[in-house]
Structures are given as C-alpha cells and as structure tokens.
C-alpha cells in the first residue's frame, strides 16, 4: 500500500514524458503538503519536493533508466487504477467524440495579436490534443496540448473550474493523456497564448509513459519498430510523412495534367516479371498453385497499352525478397508510367518534370541540400552514355572488346580489385557478356560519383531485356537510368514491341540466370562460402501471356519506373529509406 501511494503521487504530479526517477521521493509517513509541483516534458528530471525523511532507495531509483521495465509497469498499473477510479466516479476515460472548434495553429494565428494579460472573454473555443507538458502551482495549473497542427497552452485556474473538475485535473490527468478543453482565449502576463479553461474532459487515458523528451527516443531500432512512439517523441518525424503525402499528391497532379490515367494491376501474379529480382512466393489454397508478389508493375501496364489506353500509370507497392539497407526495403513504392507513340527522350522530360514539380511543392526552389551536399535540380540535367562515363573514369573503352568477354573480364578485374578485394573475381566470373562486365564496372566505380542529376544513357542489350534496340548503336538499347546523390531514382526505355525479339530476350535472360546460379553454386561448394548464391536461388519464368499480348500489337511507346521512397529521401534530407517508410521491415526482435 505504501509503495502504491508513492507511485500514485509520482504519476499524478511528477511524471514528465516518462520521468519516474523520483517516483518514491516522498514516504507515506510524510503528510506534508507542497504548494508547488512542476512537471516538464523538456527534462528527464522533474522537479521533486524534498522528502521529509531521505530514503536511501531514492538515489538508486533515480539512477534507474526511466524506460526500464519495472518503472514502465509501475506506471501502467497506477494508470489502470486511475481508469477504474474514473469509471467508478461516472467518467468514461475513452470518449466517443469531441466537438473541436479550432486547431492549435488556428488559434495561434488568429489571436497572436493579443497583448500580454489580455483575455477575449466573448470568445469560446474548443480544442483537443495530447498533453505533452504539465506544471501545477497550488490553485493554478498549466498544460501544453499538442494536436496535428502544433501546440497551445491550457490555463487552468481552480476558480474557473468546478471543484470536481479541478480535483480530476490534479489527480487523474497525466502527460500522454488526450484531452478536450473549452474556454476563452487569454494571453498570459508572460505572453503565452492560452485557452482559459472552463471545462475539460479526458478523451483517452494513456497507460504507458512517453519517452523522456530531454533524452528523446534515441534507440533507432525502437524508433522504426514503434513509429507511433517515435512520432509522439519527435514531432518532426510526422513532417516527413506529411511531405511524403504532398510528393505523392504532386506526382498524381502532374500525371493527370499530362492526360495520364491511373490504373491498378495485380499484386499477386502467376509469374514474377518486369524485372530481375527474387520474388516473395505464396500459395493459393483454392487454386492449388504458387503465386508471387509482384516485383514490378510493368508487364500488366503494357497490356493496357495493347488494350487501347495510350497513357497509363500506377503508384503502388513493389515486393522484392532481397537485402535490407539504408537504400533498400523489401517492399517499396514506385510510380510506373507508359505513353504510346513516344520514346525514351520523352521520359527524360517526364522525369525532370516530376522531380522539379515535387521539389517546388516541398521547398519552393530547385537548389536543395542533401546530407550536407548542395544539389541543383535546375533543368536541363546532364546526359551521358554508360560507355562514356566508364571511359572517362577508367580510360577503358569497352566498345573495343567487341564480343571478347574474357578480355573484358581481365581488364575489369584490374579496375575492380582495389574496390572489391576478393569479390571481384566471383562477380566478374559469372558475367556472360561484355555488357554485363561493363555494368559491373559502372555500378562499382561510377554510380556513387553521380551526385548532381544525371541521365545515364544507352545500356547494353544483354542487361536490358525489355528495352528497344538502339536505332544507331548496335548492341545497345534506348534505355536510361536517372541518378541523383549516387542513387538510382528512375529507370526508363523505349519499349520493346517486337514479340519475336521479346521472346528471344526472355529466353536468353532465363538462360543467363540459370548459368549464373549454377556458377555461384559450384563456387560455393568449392570454397564453402555461400556468397551470392541466395541472390539467384529462384526460378525465372517466361510470361507467355505477355508475349501473346505483344503478338496482338503494342504501339510504339516509352515507359519509366521512378522510386518514390528515394525521391522522398532526397526532398526530406533523409539518410535512410527507413526514415521515409512509416513501418519498414525489420529483423525479429530478440
């Protein structure tokens, strides 16, 4: 009973964003009343009244982490008891609704002109939000309320509330609770705009303590795993998702203004096509067959072109059963678009249009900062072929190798060995063509250097099974990738429309995949190292229905896929893709 009373007092008066360090500061035997209680969300050490008799255990408890399991459970137990107590008094601590007249920002904007000490008695407002700070001075209490728009102070005076309500405020309201309050508008003598509370109601009773705001929620894994707590403790996190929503909205506006139609294609597919990536596999019980989560929306969108729609796009989730890093998440969001009677030059213009419009919507300018680097999005952007970029960086012109893949590998090994140590031999050893070797050198040496917006043009045909052959350069395709800050943002081609060529490319892609998988498996058996084997431990299937659709005739077209997550990273200055995905995939917590 003595312990319960001590924790009750601490929970009622001293918890500041989970600050329970002084939870047992006042022994039960002490009946001294203190005139001043202060709770702040900006410090981990809430001001505690001096105990009548110092307790040795107090210093130990103060050393205990405010997020420790024992403290957390103690607070939860006390708050559950408060819930029971409220209900016994006829109050429901989990309300159905609250009629709100204004947001915090609306009030701040509308009444900022008030002089210090001035009150608008003729105005009655209603506000709601989460309590993030609390200070009590005998017959006066101040609460800071935060809603989606910002914060505002609640000025609670005993004379303006019924005795029952003021007692409820002192006894039952904790930091983290969601309140509704109504009253007039007042600016305090210190110039703080406040709602002069005449009535309030607990709308949701919080059972768990919030993180200590002074130290914040510093556990990165916990921030991602419990994003809701992250957003409460770090309000700026919510701004990232507001900006993300604005970017997606701006992309849709851009597409609609250009006459594109948004369509939806299957997430569950009979064959995972449109890219080369390891898919997630599931089993459909009624159909008695395996299905795959899509690795791209491309092939179904092209079917829409065959069907007669000339400008289509889809914003959707893509799933790839691959690695996790600051740049990769197993599920991510893209926009893919296809336009009939255009080529990849049109898609370069489209990429510039989408990115610049989004930048202007978010920042109002085209010169931005990303992780300390100045990025200029002013158009036009640099355009350079893959071959020329590799030649500029290494002095090697891979065009000179023709079809001599062994000679290309030998030269590439010398280039890559300093970068990749012993891994270069394994990667290059499985390359079946000069085009693949060129791509390995490009990805290892060049990609990370492409800081300012750059269109990398004209990829080898061997690594571009869905792109149209280049109309001027044999062995290349009309394909580009857009890089900003060393990251691929978009991938586009003049689309392949010849069904015979498409079937041949698919068959060659399957052959190359199987050969690479066999080579890596043999390498792993001889070295007892599994490096790279899992990346190719899946089957690549030929999508017969897509080839059939091409045989009905698809108009000349261009298409592009643009990574929305990476675009949001760029425009919110976020270092990791996990910062821009609300609930990223994480390892199982041990």
TrEMBL record:
<dbReference type="GO" id="GO:0005739">
    <property type="term" value="C:mitochondrion"/>
</dbReference>
<dbReference type="GO" id="GO:0005524">
    <property type="term" value="F:ATP binding"/>
</dbReference>
<dbReference type="Pfam" id="PF00152">
    <property type="entry name" value="tRNA-synt_2"/>
</dbReference>
<feature type="region of interest" description="Disordered">
    <location>
        <begin position="52"/>
        <end position="74"/>
    </location>
</feature>
<dbReference type="InterPro" id="IPR002313">
    <property type="entry name" value="Lys-tRNA-ligase_II"/>
</dbReference>
<dbReference type="GO" id="GO:0046872">
    <property type="term" value="F:metal ion binding"/>
</dbReference>
<dbReference type="InterPro" id="IPR045864">
    <property type="entry name" value="aa-tRNA-synth_II/BPL/LPL"/>
</dbReference>
<dbReference type="InterPro" id="IPR044136">
    <property type="entry name" value="Lys-tRNA-ligase_II_N"/>
</dbReference>
<dbReference type="Pfam" id="PF01336">
    <property type="entry name" value="tRNA_anti-codon"/>
</dbReference>
<dbReference type="GO" id="GO:0004824">
    <property type="term" value="F:lysine-tRNA ligase activity"/>
</dbReference>
<dbReference type="InterPro" id="IPR004364">
    <property type="entry name" value="Aa-tRNA-synt_II"/>
</dbReference>
<dbReference type="GO" id="GO:0000049">
    <property type="term" value="F:tRNA binding"/>
</dbReference>
<keyword id="KW-0067">ATP-binding</keyword>
<keyword id="KW-0030">Aminoacyl-tRNA synthetase</keyword>
<dbReference type="GO" id="GO:0005829">
    <property type="term" value="C:cytosol"/>
</dbReference>
<dbReference type="InterPro" id="IPR012340">
    <property type="entry name" value="NA-bd_OB-fold"/>
</dbReference>
<keyword id="KW-0436">Ligase</keyword>
<keyword id="KW-0479">Metal-binding</keyword>
<protein>
    <recommendedName>
        <fullName>Lysine--tRNA ligase</fullName>
        <ecNumber>6.1.1.6</ecNumber>
    </recommendedName>
</protein>
<dbReference type="InterPro" id="IPR004365">
    <property type="entry name" value="NA-bd_OB_tRNA"/>
</dbReference>
<dbReference type="GO" id="GO:0006430">
    <property type="term" value="P:lysyl-tRNA aminoacylation"/>
</dbReference>
<dbReference type="InterPro" id="IPR006195">
    <property type="entry name" value="aa-tRNA-synth_II"/>
</dbReference>
<keyword id="KW-0547">Nucleotide-binding</keyword>
<feature type="domain" description="Aminoacyl-transfer RNA synthetases class-II family profile">
    <location>
        <begin position="241"/>
        <end position="584"/>
    </location>
</feature>
<dbReference type="InterPro" id="IPR018149">
    <property type="entry name" value="Lys-tRNA-synth_II_C"/>
</dbReference>
<keyword id="KW-0648">Protein biosynthesis</keyword>
<comment type="similarity">
    <text>Belongs to the class-II aminoacyl-tRNA synthetase family.</text>
</comment>
């Amino acid at each position: 009973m003595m312990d319960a009373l001590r924790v009750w007092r601490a929970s009622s008066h001293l918890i500041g964003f989970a600050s329970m360090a002084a939870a047992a500061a006042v022994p039960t035997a002490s009946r001294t009343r203190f005139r001043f209680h202060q709770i702040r969300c900006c410090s981990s050490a809430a001001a505690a009244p001096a105990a009548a008799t110092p307790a040795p255990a107090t210093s130990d408890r103060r050393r205990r982490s405010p997020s420790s399991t024992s403290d957390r459970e103690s607070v939860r137990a006390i708050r559950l008891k408060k819930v029971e107590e409220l209900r016994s008094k006829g109050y429901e601590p989990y309300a159905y609704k609250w009629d709100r007249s204004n947001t915090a920002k609306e009030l701040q904007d509308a009444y900022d002109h008030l002089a210090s000490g001035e009150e608008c008695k003729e105005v009655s407002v209603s506000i709601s939000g989460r309590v993030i700070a609390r200070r009590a001075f005998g017959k006066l209490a101040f609460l800071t309320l935060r809603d989606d728009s910002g914060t505002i102070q609640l000025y609670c005076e005993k004379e303006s509330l019924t005795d029952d309500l003021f007692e409820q405020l002192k006894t039952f309201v904790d930091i983290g609770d969601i309140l509704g309050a109504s009253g007039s508008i007042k600016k305090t003598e210190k110039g703080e705009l406040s709602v002069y509370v005449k009535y309030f109601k607990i709308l949701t009773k919080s059972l768990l303590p919030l993180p200590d705001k002074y130290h914040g929620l510093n556990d990165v894994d916990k921030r991602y795993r419990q994003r809701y707590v992250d957003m409460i403790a770090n309000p700026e996190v919510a701004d990232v998702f507001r900006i993300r929503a604005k970017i997606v909205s701006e992309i849709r506006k851009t597409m609609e203004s250009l006459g594109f139609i948004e369509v939806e294609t299957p997430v569950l597919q009979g064959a995972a096509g449109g890219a080369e990536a390891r898919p997630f596999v599931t089993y459909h019980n009624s159909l008695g067959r395996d299905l795959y989560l899509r690795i791209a929306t491309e092939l179904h969108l092209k079917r829409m072109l065959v069907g007669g729609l000339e400008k289509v796009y889809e914003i959707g989730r893509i799933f790839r059963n691959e690695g996790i890093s600051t740049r990769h998440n197993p599920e991510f969001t893209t926009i893919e678009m296809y336009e009939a009677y255009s080529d990849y030059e049109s898609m370069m213009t489209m990429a510039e249009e989408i990115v610049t419009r989004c930048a202007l919507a978010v920042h109002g300018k085209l010169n931005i900062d990303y992780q300390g680097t100045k990025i200029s999005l002013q158009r036009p952007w640099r355009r350079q072929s893959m071959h020329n970029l590799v030649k500029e960086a290494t002095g090697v012109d891979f065009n000179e190798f023709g079809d001599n893949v062994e000679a290309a590998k030998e030269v590439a090994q010398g280039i890559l060995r300093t970068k990749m140590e012993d891994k270069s031999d394994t990667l290059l050893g499985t390359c079946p063509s000069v085009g693949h070797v060129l791509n390995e050198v490009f990805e290892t040496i060049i990609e990370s250097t492409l800081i300012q917006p750059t269109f990398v043009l004209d990829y080898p045909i061997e690594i571009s099974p869905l792109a149209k052959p280049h109309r001027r350069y044999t062995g290349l395709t009309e394909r580009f990738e857009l890089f900003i800050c060393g990251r691929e943002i978009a991938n586009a081609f003049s689309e392949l429309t010849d069904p015979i060529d498409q079937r041949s490319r698919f068959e060659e892609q399957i052959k190359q995949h199987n050969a690479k998988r066999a080579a890596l498996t043999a390498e792993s058996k001889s070295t007892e190292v599994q490096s790279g084997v899992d990346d190719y431990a899946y089957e690549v299937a030929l999508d017969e229905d897509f080839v059939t659709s091409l045989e009905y005739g698809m108009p000349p077209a261009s298409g592009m896929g643009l990574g929305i997550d990476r675009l949001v990273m760029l425009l919110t200055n976020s270092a990791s893709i996990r910062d821009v995905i609300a609930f990223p995939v994480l390892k199982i917590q041990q």
